[in-house]
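step 3/5: co-fold with protoporphyrin IX containing FE
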Amino acid sequence: MSWFGAEVNGPLVLTRAIHFAASATTAGAVMFCVFVADPALRQSRDGGAILQSRMAALTWTGLAVTAVTGLVWFMLLTMSITGLGSREAITSGAVLTVAGDTQFGLVSEVRAAFALVLAACLVLSRYVVLRWLGLAAASALVGAIAWTGHAGSTLGELGILHLTADVLHLLAASAWIGGLFGLSILFAVGRRRSAFGWEQLQLDAVLRFSALGMISIAVLILSGIVNTWILVGSFRALLVTDYGQLLLLKIVAFVLMVGFAAVNRFWLTPQITLTTRTKTHANALSALTRNTLIEIALGLAIFAIVGVLGTLHPAIHFMN
Ligand code: HEM
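step 4/5: write tokens
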């Protein structure tokens, strides 16, 4: 299949995109619970319980999709490395060789261990210490993706900078996009709740999330610039290469996301702050809900682009 004139492996790209989105949503949902929902909804026992059960469902679904697409990604990569079909890849032992002798294989095993730790923490999430351990396991599960991509093959000190930037990039992407799923679930729970005080708690959660969102955007821009500097290297490469043009498309989607986030933070949130139980409040809340869903759609589009980007030769390789 060709994309922007570049030949890409369709099934591999699709699996990577879904895997990145699922890993980020899983880690982001855990971050949303620890940094936004738990502190904001501590006073609302039943509201908090409903939100927690919905967030648990989101996290488990994300983890299941991460596990399945992780296995498929592993198989597809083994098949593309060896040129074997799925059955021969297993019967010939190629799968074990890739698992044991490649960086991708070793990182996949480590990530599988983090996924198991996270699953155990989700089962025992009534213990606060295990909620924090779950946060660490979820962050490691998504952060370790950096060792499977271009950042994992940059050598020397530049390699350490690239890996650090990419890990921060993945954590920030998770906090923002996974958090947006949490926010849309919060609004859905809110639409069925009219209990007194809920609006205040919801507003507290919205303000906590926008703080997390602004930190994530800043980290995404800084780590994204480092990634771009290492893998693209010049404006010319950004404009004239397939990789560069695809990255530009990603940056356009990112700018649109930031635009919606700014409208939410500086136009709609003040409206729900100043008004309660009024038409203005209801209109602002439904606009906030709609914009949140649009941001999620743009975020998923970015994961689709990244699904391709990581399989292309970096632009800097074509520039001399
Ligand atoms: C919502 C915003 C964003 C999301 C969700 C996002 C997500 C991701 C993900 C999942 C990766 C893959 C990491 C890997 O394979 O190791 C990645 C890589 C990358 N991102 Fe972003 N990113 C975002 C914004 C940005 C921005 C603003 C820039 C540029 C300023 C950027 C530049 C890059 C580059 C150059 C890579 C390396 C791709 C490669 O491995 O070839 N990203 N991004």
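step 5/5: annotate
Residues 2-318 form one domain.
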